[in-house]
């Protein structure tokens, strides 16, 4: 019989259950939301909050504020300026 070389066995990673779950504030209601793959609505706490947020995007409630240019000035093509 021949001896086989003993190979080093990789050590298993620590189970994910040892880490404490991470909670984040829900963007819609501000309540606690579990931020793990188990929460299919993350970062929202529920489907309701997710739908409220989607509705706000669809109705264009989330917009970047801008200032409208004065109507007496021409913008864009430099050939149009005097």
Task: Please give the structural blueprint.
Blueprint: E1 23-25, E2 32-34, H1 47-58
Antiparallel strand pairs: 1-2
Give the H and E element order.
Answer: EEH
Largest sheet: 2 strands, antiparallel
- Cα-based radius of gyration, to the nearest Å: 28 Å
The helix count comes to 1
Q: Shape from CA axes? A: elongated
Mean pLDDT: 76
Q: What share of the residues lie within helices?
A: 10-25%
Strand order of the largest sheet: 1-2
Describe this structure in words.
- This protein is mostly loops and 82 residues long.
- It has one helix spanning 47-58, and strands at residues 23-25, 32-34.
- It has a two-stranded antiparallel sheet.
- The chain is elongated and about 65 Å long.
- The model has no long low-confidence stretch (mean pLDDT 76).
